[in-house]
Amino acid sequence: MVWGFALFGVLLVNMFSFDAYSIAWNEPGDKIAFSVMQFFFETKSWRLFSFLFGFGFALQLSRAEECGSKFAPVYLRRLVILFS
To answer: Is 20 within 8 Å of 53 (Cβ atoms)?
Structure first.
């Protein structure tokens, strides 16, 4: 549930940047909607997403320590897949 909210917030913030400075978005209602979106979603969704990403990393690390397996190769493989 929280992951979905964080991803929705990131998606909502990024959707605005696709055509944010178009002439079609100059109405007062559009500016109000943008201000509301900035206040409620922009900073909070990035923080929540970053927190959950770090929490997932901590869970993976603790489970690897419990099982006695090496964590670095699995983590590096996931980072390579993430950055590619």
So the answer is: no
